[in-house]
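Hey,
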Amino acid sequence: MSRVAYLGPEGTFTHQAADRWARAQAGPTTALARAVSAAVDVGKGTVELVPVPTVTDVYAGVASGEYEHGIVAIENTVEGYVVPSLDAIVGSEDVVAIDEVVVEITFDAFVRPGHGDLTEVTAHPHGLAQCQGFVARSGAVPVPSSSNAAACRDATESQIALGPPICGELYGLDVLEPGVEDFRGARTRFLAIVRRDRARAALAAAREQGPAQWRSMLALTPHLTGPGVLARITQAFGAGGVNLSSLITRPLKALEGRYVFVLTADAAPWEPALRDVLEGLLAAGDSVKTLGVFPARGELDEALSTDHVPVASVRAGASAGELERGLLWA
């Protein structure tokens, strides 16, 4: 029996992602899925989904071997990276990602049957942030919860709880208003994590089943900082013909002005182009760590709609007044 840990309780978006990932392993339809399934000993009827109280418990349980796999949220298309989860995988010695799941995010506003005056609205902080319009018009005080499902499970008669639609049936709630998220079509990426000493076997088996497009999540820490350090790193990928689809920084704890760069590269570490780039970075004195390698499923390749560009951004062809306003040109 393979045990898969996720942030509970039942009804969280992570629960939904864990269920989707487990079903894919139980009934793989592609050579790649069959290889990953076999390599990590997941088969039909052999997966147990285990809710745990915190994301930290997911990482710790996988690292210790208590759980064979874990599912953790890593990035939301509205709120960006899930910082506690990102910091956990950056700081983990024994855990790495081998797959990802993307879940569309929608929130319903729930209340207890026969509720009283609704003075508070509760959800995970990311949930509250994704439903700011509803929170504002409700006039209720926002109250953070450990998860959206926990907010629904523990909602009092004076609270509005925001959570996935499934939570209404799970926790006996009435729908006050459906679909209260600010942005339709929001999605969250979840990583499937395993112990690092199991990852190479799983990925090696997957590689044998045929060609696939891969993405790698990397942590890169420059030891020598100063002007041009970021340009040097990004230029290394560009010169090596490896596309970077994401780059963010996280502070090195308790060190002012020192950072680890978390990058997503459109290649796998064993592919010659990325291997050459990583060898060059090592030779330059940087510390490098692979945080995850997973099949590219195309979610990062969609064309960018101008509706999503920050308001007041300017492009070539803008008027002189628009350029002055947007760029603060004198």
